[in-house]
Amino acid sequence: MLDKGSIISNISDQLRIKRQESARGKTHNELSNTVNSQADALKVKNVQIKQWADKEQRAEAQIHIRTKAMDAATDGIFIIDVKNKDFSVIYSNQAFQTMVGYSRKDIIGKNYFLLYADIADLRIAEEIKNTLQKDESFQGEMLNFRKNGDKFWNYLRISCVRDVNGVVTHYVGIQTDVTLMRRKDFEIKEQREELLHVTRVGKLAEFVSSLAHEISQPLTSILSYAQAAYRMLEGKDSQLQEILQYIINDDQRAAEVIRRLRSLLKKSDPEVKPIDINKLINETIELMATDVTVRNKVIKIALEPKLPNINGDRIQLQQVLLNLISNSLDAMEGRDEFRELSIRTSLNGSEEIIVEVKDSGCGIPKENMKKLFSHFFTSKPDGLGMGLSISRSIIEAHGGRLEVKNNPEGGAIFYFTIPVGGGVKEWS
Amino acid sequence: MSKPIIYVVDDDVSVCRALSLLLKSHGFEVETFNRAKDFLTFKHFKRASCLVLDVELPDINGFAMQEPMLAQQLFIPIVFITGHGSIPMSVKAMRGGAVDFLAKPFTDKELLAAIDRAIAKNKIQNKEQAELTKIAEFIKTLSPTELEVFRLVASGMANKQIAYKRGIVLQTVKVHRSRVMQKLRAKNVTELIRLAEKAKIIPAQK
Predict the structure, then answer these.
(1) Best residue in A224, A231, A234, A236 to probe B by mutation, most B CBs within 10 Å?
(2) With respect to CATH, is domain B5-129 assigned 1.20.1050.10?
(3) Separation between Cα atoms, residue B18 and residue A220, nearest integer Å
(4) Which of A34, A68, B19, B50 could form a cystine bridge with B118, CB 3.0-4.6 A?
(5) pLDDT digits (tens, 9 = 90+) for A61-78
(6) B85: nearest Cα among A373, A394, A219
(7) Which of the listed ranges A33-42, A140-149, B46-55, B192-201 does the model predict with the highest average pLDDT?
């Protein structure tokens, strides 16, 4: 039999247990809620971390490919940090290193201008600094030195790199070694000048020769008149004879001046060699390329392939070509509707080569056709009138002919022939 | 003997006049021409002469004058005068009938010396020409048989060979031969051969 007291204590025990159980359940729920929400947060973080990692990886890949690309570039590229007042280089690509001859280790952290050692032109360095400090970009060509002391022509461009706020943080430079181009330009210029010199000397010689010829005529008659008179006065008037002797002496003095002038400008002997006329034409066009471009004209060529060589003097024939081409350009001067100049070569049978220079100018007036090749005839205000007459002499000395005709479609056609397997005669 | 005649061809009228005056003062007879054509159509004297010829003529290059002159049998030595300082090599090579080249202006001494050489050459030429004419006239008097005998003797055949070749008697050959000698005024066979060479009846011996 259970007493009342024990029953009550039993109930209260049970009640306590129940209470305890309920509290435990609540705690459990709370705990599991916390765990769940934290796991979710972790998941989000994980996704974020993965995204960051991917981004980082992509960025790295991009940097990698950019670095590779910079090194693959044929121009020298470098970056200067503006913060460093001494223009120190923080990056340079492979081509830059090759160009200047220093290793990357030598370059990074060094002043860009001092890289070219103390031989670099400091005035240019100042100019570059001044330009950049005005936040402008610089562009220019200068002579620099490699580590081993070799000179090279540097075509340099430097521009400013800005941050989001537009503040200049870096300079990026690109430089190209233009030494070869410069040398080629120089060679062409030199060849042009040599040819022009030869042409000038040729013109002068021809001019002097014509002048000397004209003057020698009256000198001949003066001398003979004086000597005839001298003889007629023999034993009659010695005083007049003395005067005549002075005339004779001075006539001979004048003749001597002419003789000396002639020997001074004596034409050098032609140098005869086998010549590929097509090649010569191409070379001549190359010499005139700048002139043609500046004048906004176009040269079209139609060269017969596989022409036999001709025997001739290169410089002289080039002089003729140059003369014909520049005449054609002059004929089209200032007229944009006439632009085209064409040069054609062809083989006439097996005996001669024909070279034709055709312009699209206004052609040659009929009344000038005959005089065109005479000395001192010119239709240009600043012309000497020697070019075509010299050209004709040269072509004739090569056994050919130089002729002109008007193109029915407009413009003039100058053409010359050169016999295949011919030689060169001396010409005067 | 009559005065030598000098022909002057130059397109410069004053040069012609001056040279004419000068040469006349030295006792020459002078004819001047301004064009090559005028000189070529002129009726020339059969006298010792010389041509002073300008190289640069308007109608013909002086150097090309030699051809029409030869065609006309005008054997006159030429003194070329030129206003161009030098004479091209190619021209010097074809001196042909030319005696001298003078660059203008030249002195009377230079001109007279050149003319003297030209006239001396012309005299020899004239003498030869006269001899040739004489020989040609003599040859014309030969009968066809005599001419044949002349040719054979001159080419070195003996009388017997000639007789055999022609199918005639030796005696007849001898008669023809002596007539040839007589008509050609030749004293011996050597002279006969020389005449034959000059008249181009047999090729010249080297």
Answers:
(1) A224
(2) no
(3) 8
(4) B50
(5) 988 998 899 889 999 999
(6) A219
(7) A33-42
Chain-chain contact of B108 with A220 (C-beta, under 8 angstroms): no
Residue A275: count of CB within 10 angstroms of its CB = 18
- Which has more pLDDT, A176 or A115? A176
* Contact state of A217 with B14 under an 8 Å Cβ cutoff: yes
Decide if A217 and B84 are in contact by the 8 Å CB cutoff.
Answer: no
Any chain A CB within 8 A of the CB of B86? yes
Residue of A nearest to B88 (CA): A426
**A267 pLDDT higher than 70:** no
- Yes or no: say if B86 and A428 are a contact pair by the CB < 8 Å rule: yes
Instruction: Please state, in angstroms and rounded to a whole number, the distance separating the CA atoms of residues A309 and A311.
Output: 7
The CA distance from B67 to B59, in Å, is 14
pTM of the model: 0.55
| Nearest-neighbour CA in chain B from A287: distance (Å) | 33
A242 alpha-carbon distance from chain centroid:
68
CATH code for residues B141-198: 1.10.10.10
User: ipTM, 2 decimals?
Assistant: 0.73
Closest chain A residue to B10, measured at CA: A217
Domains of chain A: 75-177 (3.30.450.20), 182-264 (1.10.287.130), 272-419 (3.30.565.10)
Q: Give start-end residues of each CATH 3.40.50.2300 domain in chain B.
A: 5-129
